[in-house]
Amino acid sequence: MKKHLVYLIMDSCRFDSYLSASTPNIDRIGSVQRRWSYASWTSPSHSVYLMGLLPHENPRHIFASEVYKNEFAQWVERLGIDQLAFKDFLPQLSLPRVLRSLGYRTTAKVSMPVLNQYTLLNQHFDEYKLMENHNDFPGMIREIQFPKDQLQFYFLNLGETHYPYMLGGDDLPRISGVHGVFKSLSEKQSGIAHAERQEQFFDAEQMNYLRNQQVKVIEYLDGLVGELLAKCPRNTHLIVTADHGELFGEDGFFGHGPVMHEKVFEVPFVEGDNP
């Protein structure tokens, strides 16, 4: 039987933060795996995922080309479509294009401004929406529908796990540069002067607080995944992962992006059919 596909990306969700969280609803989908992102920043990571690749397992003593081949082959089982092959992804290498050609309605709902609908990521989607609030997984769930006789592909970028890991009313340390920087690019301001402002680095207590806050948000999202599962038909395959990890002070790093560190590439990965 052909399956609907729901693809959840918890932005910046660190692997060991996920392990520290209680996730009974996501656990119903499948067991968590430690995998690795192809990129340390939101935009390039989502680009790779939309090619049809997922976070990789980092196997040793195998040709890298075999990893790619095996990943594309798994879409047959995920979607329940026997005739699907790697050649169907060529030459565009676009998962939404392949799904649309198979009769799926393709919908993306994203939280991060860097993924907005004017970027190339919007290609091959029937609907592509930047949510007004980057903490609006509940709004995404309300908008999700599964009409009869129409296969659905939902690609969801969840901003709650991204800095500042905030659930209304939380009092958190703030960094100006990561609070909607892409929303303010059109404002008349001096980029050089802005870049020259020196932010004060968080101390160890603040770093620990922020990491605990991310754990708290993961648990919040897991509760909402329960609502999502109740809305999904039984023939729905779900993927839950992250686009990259996050640094909370290890080796003098905070955040992600221009950072080369194991913890920024290490991500949780869960997939399975709707239980």
Would you mind describing this structure in some detail?
The chain has 275 residues and is an alpha/beta fold. The chain has one domain: Alkaline Phosphatase, subunit A. It is built from ten helices and nine strands. It has helices spanning 15-20, 24-29, 42-51, 64-73, 75-79, 95-101, 137-143, 191-196, 204-231, 262-265, and strands at residues 4-10, 33-36, 104-110, 127-130, 151-158, 236-241, 247-248, 254-255, 266-273. The chain has a seven-stranded mixed β-sheet. Strand 7 and strand 8 (254-255) form a beta hairpin. The longest helix has 28 residues, at 204-231. It is globular, with a radius of gyration of 19 Å. The chain starts with a strand and ends with a strand. The relative contact order is 0.26. Mean pLDDT is 87; it is low at 175-198.
How far the N terminus sits from the C terminus, by CA atoms, comes to: 15 Å
Strand arrangement, major sheet = 2-9-6-1-5-3-4
Number of strands: 9
Unreliable runs: 175-198
Instruction: Quickly give the structural class.
Output: alpha/beta
> What portion of residues belong to β-strands?
15-25%
Helicity, as a percent range? 25-40%
What's the architecture in CATH terms?
A: 3-Layer(aba) Sandwich
In short:
This protein has 275 residues and is an alpha/beta fold. 32% of the residues lie in helices and 17% in strands.
From the structure above, extract its key features.
7-stranded mixed beta sheet; two-stranded antiparallel sheet; globular
